[in-house]
């Protein structure tokens, strides 16, 4: 395997109707000997409200490459923390293992890589009475696979970004600017 030094990727998968289960992971992949490895090791301490944890598929099932996940939203409730360390963590772990199975991540040299994934989990999920955990799994699984694949393929390319500069705009700019 040629060394993977520093790759980034992101993806968004939208929730089913009536759910707050949108998933928007951001992924950093790189060598354990490089800047990603340094950042990975530095994240092992905790930050109040932004729990950092290894990604496991289940008890005693730490994924490879070693991956740390953390939240983009401050954790305020036990219900939120349970979803993050339960359904979301399991979906993320399954997606990582499937990326290895499908050849998106290289099996050879896997222990020389590490990943950091920032997770978006809407804080309304923790108190949503009709939360669809299957949809929460689906969005996080699909988005994690997309983000890892995009990181490994270097997508979007600069040529794609240039080509769609005036046709794609951030959703928050609707009615703010016109192209």
Automatic annotation (TrEMBL):
Q: Which residues form the Formaldehyde-activating enzyme domain?
A: 8-171
Known Pfam families for this protein? Fae (PF08714)
Q: Name the domain of life.
A: Bacteria
What InterPro entries is this protein classified in?
HCHO-activating_enzyme, HCHO-activating_enzyme_sf, Ribosomal_Su5_D2-typ_SF
- List keywords of the entry alphabetically: Lyase
> What name has this protein been given in UniProt?
5,6,7,8-tetrahydromethanopterin hydro-lyase
């Amino acid at each position: 395997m040629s060394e993977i030094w520093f790759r980034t990727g992101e993806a968004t998968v939208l929730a089913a109707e009536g759910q707050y289960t949108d998933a928007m992971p951001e992924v950093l992949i790189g060598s354990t000997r490089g800047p990603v490895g340094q950042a990975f090791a530095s994240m092992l301490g905790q930050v109040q409200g932004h729990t950092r944890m290894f990604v496991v598929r289940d008890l005693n099932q730490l994924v490879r490459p070693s991956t740390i996940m953390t939240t983009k939203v401050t954790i305020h409730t036990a219900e939120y923390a349970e979803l993050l360390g339960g359904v979301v963590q399991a979906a993320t772990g399954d997606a990582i293992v499937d990326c290895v199975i499908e050849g998106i991540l290289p099996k050879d040299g896997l222990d020389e890589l590490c990943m950091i994934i920032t997770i978006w989990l809407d804080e309304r999920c923790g108190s949503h009475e009709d939360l669809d955990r299957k949809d929460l799994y689906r969005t996080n699984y699909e988005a994690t696979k997309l983000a890892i694949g995009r990181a490994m393929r270097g997508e979007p390319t600069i040529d794609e970004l240039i080509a769609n500069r005036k046709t794609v705009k951030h959703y928050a700019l609707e009615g703010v600017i016109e192209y």
